Amino acid sequence: MRVAQEFIPGSAKVQSMSIKNPYVPELAVIEKITEETWDTKTFRAAFVNEEFRENFTYKPGQFQLVSVFGVGEATFCLTSAPTRKGFVEFSVKKVGTVTSALHELDEGTTVGIRAPLGNRFPYERFKGKDLWFIGGGIGMAPLRSLLNFCLDNRRDYGKIGIIYGARSSADLCFTYEYDEWQKSPNTELFLTIDKEEEGWAKNVGFVPTYLMDLKPSPKNAIAITCGPAIMIKYVLQDLKELGFEDEQIWTTLEMKMKCGIGKCGRCNIGHIYVCTDGPVFSHAQLKELPPEY
Amino acid sequence: MEAKVISKQDIKNWLESLAGKYEIIAPVTEDGVTRFRTVQDFSAIDLVPTPAAGSLRAVFTPETETLFEYELSGHAAEVKVSEAAVKDRLIFGARACDAAALKYVDAVYSNVEPVDTLYFNRRERTAIVGLFCSNPSWSCFCTEVGDFLTNPVGMDAYFTDIGDKLHAEALTPKGEELLSAPQFKPASEADAQAVEEVRKKALSRLPKPTDHAAASKSYDWDHPIWARLAEKCLGCGICAYLCPTCHCFDIQDCAMGSKGGRFRCWDTCQFEKFTLMGAGHNPRPSKKERTRQRVFHKFKYSPERYAVLGCVGCGRCIAACPVNIDIRRVLEELESQG
To answer: For the whole model, what pTM was predicted?
Structure first.
């Protein structure tokens, strides 16, 4: 845990007293909008400033604050993988003011982006291990960044299993990438939907149930999960039952955010801020925190 | 630098001599409420013997502050950041609690990069002259949470009212510069004695120290007090509004056609919508969670994260709470055995 740095006004430590204001976003143009589901769109954006765009880099698990000028700013995970350069992607479920405004935008609109923010998946610790991605609905968005990053560095990781479920087939996201995921060596995709559907030949059942059917081995494995709170709750229980230790289970949390840089006080869970100490946490870390998220 | 004194009659012309270089901010009483304001008429300064109703927070983070302006044209957007320079300011008559609170906020706003440059730009350019509280209020409890009343932090000079003059001690090179003005004369033995007596008298009315940070390690998450506070608390947020260590803010956009701006404004964890998410989930849905957050943030999470307590015992929340919630009693209950 970072200890307070003694701030002495005028000291050399705080040299960038320039007008560099951490609350000002970089401009980015929406290059592509993909309709994932009836309420979810994925936006691909490129920074306007060439130098910034060229030098921009991030880690899987980090997030961005996207601005619709005049409406507001909201948090979205960087769903693109940093191995694929020149653009960033964010997936937006239409639930409120900013998300609705984003859904109204055309390709070519300029938005603001403050990125990269937050911590990241400790992928170095995952090297050589089997990875199980367990996602539900829009929860697949943050997992996708790490997944594509790992697939782009395929030799660094063991077997990759992707368990992904949604309420119905129409609620599944990133369908256009499933072929690519499955073509990768030693990688398997397990899709599931909640209820029977005409024309659906794959698994039917909730993600936690499917997880128990598949029984992934915890031996030298890491599980990374994200989805609706209820799904995460049961997935965690099931992973423990399968023998996964707390340090082997990773997730990424969501909280209302404003500043994104640990100042406005909004996203704390106990003494940690989800925006700076997270959003990626292991189950071992979460167990130490108050149950308030 | 040795201690000095300044006659109360000379304060006005001392401040006048500084007015060219600094914007002077001092306590001013309007309609019975004393707040820190920019002063041009130095005879209006009211050196009340206890903390002013308002803290110094607004001096460093205005209640509402523009972050940037933008202009839209078709699909394009332009962002304009204000280049206005921050003026040099001098706060005269700050309280030890308020100055100590600034050190806490410094820790919060610099804990993670990037630091809050808007706050630190002002911090860097503001000299602080403190005033010892010779008549602590019934709600003051600074000595319970720290010893900064007698060992001040966060200020450049510390004055004590000893009757017809103010005793003055420089605490930093900036303080020494200020006290080298001709209105300041060397303090005598008698002056030092007078300070001792004023200090003793004030301290006798203040509580003994309590290690709340240590006690907070065993605070009960499910203590029955939260439900009781939830019944009383109105969620008005006055405690946070007046609190010198409160640092939380909201960020909103304001649009007027194709032009507009983004601003930040004070906000509080005591408001229901503070943690409300877009899809409807709220990790703190009732006042039970929110009152607990306030106490835990100040007395438990702050020492855990910053190694500094998040409360300076200024007592404003106690004095202002419309339903008489007293944080000292809350802590007593949390820390009592059985």
So the answer is: 0.94
